[in-house]
Every structure is written in C-alpha cells, then in structure tokens.
Write a structure and sequence with these properties.
The structure is a homodimer.
Chain A (H helix, E strand, L loop, with lengths): L3 H10 L7 H14 L1 H17 L1 E2 L6 E2 L5 H4 L4 E8 L2 H10 L4 E5 L17 H9 L5 E4 L5 H16 L4 E3 L15 H9 L5
Chain lengths: 197, 197
C-alpha cells in the first residue's frame, strides 16, 4: 500500500511485543510524520544495544559491562543470592526496594518439552558459584508455575548437596488483594502455608 | 536501574506513540532476551526510512519515490483530487476500496494558534496543481473537527476562484452505527444534511 521502505518499517515494528498491524502503521506514520529525530535515536539505541549488551559474568543479567551494577556494588550483600527467571524479575524486586542481596538470572525455566535443560539456564555456573563458597542463602524466586516450581526444586536439590541453605519466597494472597477475586489455587496454597501468629 | 545502553533503549522506545515506561521496559527486554534479529532489522528499517522517505512531488504523501504509487498509477483518475490531512487517511480510504482518483496530503490542518498557516499545508502547491488545469473535482476529506472544517472552507474558497468544482464527503450516522450511541453533534448534522428519497 505504501512505498517499500515504509512497508518494511511497519513490518519490522511488529517485532515489538504487543504491536499488531494497526499499531505498527500508527507508529511508523507517527515517527515519519512527526518525530524523525526520535526514530533516528531509536535506530541508534537498538543497534548499539544489540551490539553491546551481553550478560553479567556473575549473575547473567543483561548488561554491557563485565559485572552488572548490582554485582559490582560493594554495599550489596554478596552472601545472599536470589534466583529469578528473567531480568524483568530483577527489576521488579529492585523496585520493591527491600532486597539487599545479589541475583542469579536463569533466562527461562526448565522445560524438557522445549528442549530447555540445566545447561541453558546456566545451572552449572550457579553450581560453581555455590561451590566456591561465600553464599549463605539461596532465595528461589522463580515463578509459581509448574515449570518455575520444577526449576526451583531442581536448584534446591543441587544446593542442598553443597550444604547451602535454600529458601523459597512466600506465595499466597497478595497484599491489598480481595479474597473474593483470588483464584482457587492461590487460596489453597495460602491455607496450606498458613503461619501461626 | 539497568546498564546505560539498556536505559537508553528504554527511553528511546518511548518515542513510539502509546508506549509508556512499563511497555518500553517490556519491549527492550523482549528484544534483547528473545529477538535480537528483530531488533537489528528494526534498527535498519528505522534508519533507512528516516534517511530515504520524503514526500511525493504531486500529492505530498510519504514515499521514497519522486511520485508515490498512486500518483504514478496511470489507471487512477487524475482528474479527481481528494484532499486529506494525513497519509493514514489515504490508507483508510484506499482500504475502503472504492475511490479511484488521486490524493493531496496536507500533513495537518490550519491552526493559527499553533502557527500552522497555508504554506505549511502546501496550499500554494495545491493552488498550482488546480491552476494547471485537468482537475475536474476536488473532494474535501479533512476531519470533521473545527480545524478540519476551517481548512476545508479555506481550500474550497480558493478552488472556487479557479472555477474548480469542490465537494465535501458526507458526514452523518456511520453505517452499522446505532442511533442510541451516536453523539448529538453527529445526529444534528445528519438531520440538517438529510436527503430526499
């Protein structure tokens, strides 16, 4: 419908999550009509990030440095290691603002059906980190899904063999949530994990 | 929170319409974690489009060619000229699929308060096009807003001086719309523009 360059731009914009044909068209026309400077800046930012961003040597989160800012921060408690599935989870926990330890990012969860095994999640690297000593507690913060639970279980078994204490973050009714609207699985878990007051 | 390159990418993504901080974060992490190829393709598409896409010499729509595919198409009726505000409007009319004439894109509407006058809308170019002869009808398809109406009025006055017939697309209750949900302004217009059957 449009010229080849514009069609290609619309098609390339669909690589963005949540962007369908209509949004891609709106984005392409907006950038070309009203914000070419923003478009150039985005092109450069994308190219530099794809080129430069790799993984932190210690925790595997996304960074262009050898060590990410959290691993490199001397004031963080290096003896606490929180295992999460994605860099977005790191951000969510950081935004909560109370955790002062470090992280280990799996970039996924065990999923034999998709051919994702321990090596793909850097579990050998995690093993070396725990075997090297200095970690006093591993906090498992994988998602409370079947795969997340299986991954947490697998890691806890390996950590126990190394005599590193392991904990799992609490699951239950979220603060501010109304019981009426909480799913049955969460409620059942909240009951079975109840704590004496 | 993240490293500088990732922060810059998130910030650059906010140039896209409808993308706030949370979506920008999701997009950046998605591209870096799962679709670096798509990110590179998008970077190239953006850079090439910003570099290459200009305006059609005749109708001012976005294209990297001298004449856009519609103006260059010999089978389109060059004697019909539909004036619209944006390239997106051209696309909407093309998708309706019945109009066989050509277009003229204003890239906006008259808006003295924002300092947008006739020159910014290429109205001198439109004047030359009409003065050159060969246009049998100008169809005004600017938006039915105050500025769109003012722009349509201004263009119709100039076209009449050149003895070019001018028409305005019909406004009223959209097909498939239910009267109950149509705004009062549209209904009032539909009544005042009623046609004998």
């Amino acid at each position: 419908m449009f010229s080849p360059l514009i069609d290609e731009l619309m098609s390339a914009l669909r690589a963005l999550p949540g962007v369908g044909p209509k949004s891609a068209q709106r984005m392409a026309l907006h950038l070309l009509e009203r914000d070419r400077e923003g478009a150039s800046r985005l092109a450069t930012a994308l190219a530099t990030a794809v080129e430069g961003v790799g993984e932190c040597d210690r925790c595997r989160t996304l960074t262009e440095q050898t060590l990410c800012s959290i691993c490199a921060n001397k004031r963080r408690n290096q003896a606490l290691l929180c295992v999460v599935e994605t860099p977005a989870d790191v951000l969510a926990i950081e935004q909560a603002g109370t955790y002062q330890g470090t992280y280990f990012v799996l970039h996924g969860h065990l999923s034999p059906i998709d051919g994702i095994g321990p090596q793909d999640l850097g579990l050998d690297q995690l093993h070396s980190l725990l075997a090297a000593g200095g970690i006093e507690e591993v906090i498992l913060a994988t998602n409370p899904t079947i795969e997340g639970e299986a991954t947490a279980h697998y890691i806890s078994e390996r950590a126990k063999k190394l005599d590193v204490p392991v904990s799992r973050i609490a699951h239950g009714v979220p603060l501010g949530g109304e019981l009426e609207y909480i799913d049955g699985g969460t409620l059942a878990h909240a009951f079975s994990s109840r704590q004496r007051v």
